[in-house]
Design a protein that fits this description.
Helices cover 36% and strands 21% of the residues. It is built from ten helices and 15 strands. The protein has three domains: 67 residues, Winged helix-like DNA-binding domain superfamily/Winged helix DNA-binding domain (Arc Repressor Mutant, subunit A, Orthogonal Bundle); 114 residues, Rossmann fold (3-Layer(aba) Sandwich), CATH 3.40.50; 131 residues, Rossmann fold, CATH 3.40.50. Helix 5 runs parallel beside helix 6 and helix 7 packs across helix 8. The strands form three sheets. A seven-stranded mixed beta sheet has the order 4-5-3-6-7-8-14, with helices on one face. A hairpin with a 3-residue loop joins strand 1 and strand 2. With 327 residues, it is an alpha/beta fold.
């Protein structure tokens, strides 16, 4: 049995596809009731929702007409941490921040139905049940999280690490590739290691894995790195880290080893945009391109809203921005 929301979405799809052109009259209520096999009250509620969203105009005695598309902006709920990249209004979208704390109460989930689409930014685990409940009900895209069966747009961590490791090894053929693992088991960190190992395998190079406990102290990490660097005396080291959290310890560990930046030591990590005065050197890094992530998410929402035939969830990868530093 079709709900009024199902009918509203189908009528809206027909408007977007030109089946119901701008300024034309919507078929009569009787025709639509027969087609959708619903009661008058259900159909009236669907039409009222489209009138409220300015897709349709209804006047007593004149019937219901289709508004020009330019008069309608899709209301998109932006849920989660701000990425600092999305405008309030972008093209045909009007993006409105939605407080995720409201979703702690299940009775508030219905508030999402007033939006045309949902854009989730770094959703927390507590929000996953809401995302799953909205699947198939409201078009939605998740940014920088991978959820099976849900449209996602995320950063290409594996591709970025494959690129930087391959470039480093090509420029430093005698260096020992080393991967510094922070011990976290998140998917992005897993992808970063896979990209690094891909590059080593493709280049036929052996590598070392320096793994640290997630709760290890700064001093403990520094000492372990210092010992590893001394043990590799005489061998250039090409270090790639999966976490910015390891960077400070690595910079301190280099002291007293006789290592020289860009001579026999190179270092790269992710999301490191600190200037030279923080570490003493500028770190080569990739930075997540939030603007590109949001743009790709809105493009996907456009497809989801404009066609009733999009059934397969899409996972799009966005390559990060490159920041080339001294190391």
């Amino acid at each position: 049995m079709q709900t009024y929301r199902d009918i509203a979405r189908e009528i809206e799809r027909r408007i977007l596809c030109g089946i119901y052109p701008a300024n034309s009259q919507l078929p009569s209520r009787l025709e639509l009731m027969r087609e959708f096999q619903v009661a008058r009250a259900t159909l009236d509620r669907a039409v009222r929702e489209l009138v409220d969203s300015r897709r349709l105009t209804s006047r007593r005695g004149s019937g219901t007409s289709v508004n020009p598309l330019k008069e309608h902006r899709r209301d998109v709920a932006l849920i989660g941490a701000s990425l600092g990249a999305e405008p309030e209004i972008s093209g045909e979208f009007c993006c409105r921040p939605f407080d995720p704390e409201l979703l702690a109460r299940r009775s508030n989930w219905a508030l999402l139905y007033k939006y045309d689409a949902l854009l989730w930014r770094f959703p927390r685990s507590s929000e996953l049940p809401v995302i799953e409940a909205m699947a198939g009900r409201i078009p939605q895209v998740v940014v920088n999280r991978v959820i099976p069966g849900i449209d996602c747009v995320s950063t290409d961590h594996r591709g970025a690490y494959r690129t930087i490791a391959a470039e480093r090894m090509k420029g430093c053929p005698d260096a020992l590739p080393v991967f510094l693992s922070s011990g976290g088991d998140t998917l992005p960190r897993q992808y970063r290691f896979e990209g690094f190992s891909d590059a080593c395998r493709n280049a036929g190079r052996f590598y070392e894995l320096w793994k640290f406990d997630q709760g290890a102290s700064f001093d403990a990490m520094t000492q372990i790195m210092h010992d590893h660097l001394l043990a590799a005396a005489g061998t250039p080291v090409l270090a790639v880290s999966d976490s910015l959290a390891l960077t400070g310890a690595f910079m301190h560990a280099v002291s007293g080893t006789g290592r020289r930046w860009k001579k026999d030591l190179w270092y790269s990590d992710f999301d490191n945009n600190y200037p030279r005065n923080v570490w003493g050197v500028e770190v080569t890094s990739f930075i997540q391109d939030y603007e590109a992530l949001i743009t790709a998410a809105l493009e996907r929402l456009t497809k989801l809203l404009g066609s009733g035939n999009v059934t397969e969830p899409e996972h799009k990868l966005v390559f990060p921005l490159r920041r080339s530093g001294d190391t």
